[in-house]
Backbone:
């Protein structure tokens, strides 16, 4: 049971977050190209796409966690989704450059993790 | 918020962490572990579930960290091979290296009975703009000039042919363009640059530019000869009062 949970959690999170990071990287590269083309100097404006992406992922994970909490007594996937929210938020903190981007993503994380009914500790 | 801020401020010491990637990973890892510890204290999570999630967090964090380093290294290489090698980062125009290569390429085309025009221009009194409004304003002017001229060239059907050849000097290679057409396009550019207003911290900066035009012909010994002629025309525009166009055929 333990090993099954561990294996499935590690695989799910590693592949899920790698996918998240890959899309994050693509949006980042496209935003940089657009900023160079449009001569944007404002970092927040350049990162707006990334902020929206992070918020969408956090909201998606929130609904998935809620759905699994209600539907089954096996809480493994619920905690996996909470773990994914932690990782997405930490990754965003590391990658976003603008203070405004950070504040928006972090506030959204606080609301969502708080709303999950468990994780106000991190935010 | 505090934990997030600690991670966010890591970038302030990016130079330090670039040399020590393992240290860079420690704060996020520690904060993640602390978060799960707090969860275990405050909420009902079984010990085995907690161990599973902590191990998953560490393994996934490490995996994403390694993946991210590779991803960014690859992106850096690709960017270097494309955008950075070909384009001037400030203005978005092509750089001197590309100008040199493209001018040689166009010269070889001209020798096979095609025509091309070479337009060189620079911003008048650009040093005064820098001295009066500062270098950031000067950069804004260069970006605005490049953007305006590129827009006009695109409208006229000449894509990706603007080059930044020096500080405030630009050039455009117009393939299959007669002298008359080159003059007409240059006049549009001149008028647009006169009307251009660059706004910087409440100040309005107006500029003009001087132009030199020449046509490239098979009689030119090499591409440099055509460029010298265009450059000479530019300096004639400068010496005769600026905000002018001087044209001579090859």
Residues:
């Amino acid at each position: 049971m333990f090993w099954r949970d561990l294996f499935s959690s590690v695989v799910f999170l590693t592949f899920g977050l790698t996918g998240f990071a890959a899309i994050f990287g693509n949006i980042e590269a496209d935003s940089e190209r657009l900023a160079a083309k449009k001569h944007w100097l404002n970092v927040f404006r350049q990162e707006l796409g990334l902020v929206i992406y992070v918020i969408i992922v956090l909201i998606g994970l929130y609904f998935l966690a809620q759905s699994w909490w209600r539907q089954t007594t096996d809480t493994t996937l619920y905690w996996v989704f909470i773990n994914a929210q932690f990782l997405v938020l930490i990754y965003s903190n590391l990658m976003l450059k603008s203070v405004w981007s950070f504040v928006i993503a972090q506030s959204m994380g606080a609301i969502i993790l708080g709303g999950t009914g468990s994780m106000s500790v991190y935010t | 918020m505090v934990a997030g801020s600690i991670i966010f401020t890591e970038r302030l010491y990016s130079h330090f962490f670039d040399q020590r990637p393992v240290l860079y990973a420690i704060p996020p890892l520690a904060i993640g572990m602390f978060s799960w510890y707090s969860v275990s204290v405050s909420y009902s999570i079984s010990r085995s579930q907690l161990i599973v999630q902590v191990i998953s967090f560490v393994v996934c964090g490490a995996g994403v960290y390694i993946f991210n380093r590779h991803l960014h290294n690859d992106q850096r290489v690709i960017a270097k091979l494309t955008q950075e090698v070909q384009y001037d980062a400030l203005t978005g125009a092509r750089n001197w290296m590309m100008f040199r290569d493209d001018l040689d390429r166009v010269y070889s085309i001209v020798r096979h009975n095609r025509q091309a025009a070479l337009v060189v221009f620079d911003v008048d009194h650009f040093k005064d703009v820098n001295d009066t409004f500062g270098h950031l304003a000067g950069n804004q002017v260069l970006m605005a000039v490049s953007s305006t001229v590129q827009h006009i060239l695109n409208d006229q059907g000449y894509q990706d042919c603007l080059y930044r050849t020096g500080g405030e000097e630009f050039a455009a290679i117009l393939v299959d363009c007669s002298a008359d057409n080159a003059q007409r396009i240059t006049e549009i550019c001149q008028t647009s640059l006169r009307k251009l207003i660059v706004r910087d911290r409440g100040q309005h900066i107006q500029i003009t530019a001087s132009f030199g035009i020449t046509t490239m012909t098979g009689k030119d010994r090499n591409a440099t000869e055509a460029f010298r002629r265009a450059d000479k025309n530019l300096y004639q525009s400068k010496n005769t009062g600026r905000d002018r166009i001087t044209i001579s055929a090859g």
Q: What stands out?
A: The radius of gyration of chain A is 16 Å. Residues 119-123 of chain A have pLDDT under 50 and may be disordered. The interface with chain B takes residues 1-2, 5-6, 9-10, 13-14, 17-18, 21-22, 25, 29, 33, 36-37, 39, 75-76, 79-80, 82-83, 86-87, 89-91, 93-94, 96-97, 99, 102, 106, 109-110, 118-119, 121-123 of chain A (CB under 8 Å). Chain A has one domain: 2-115.
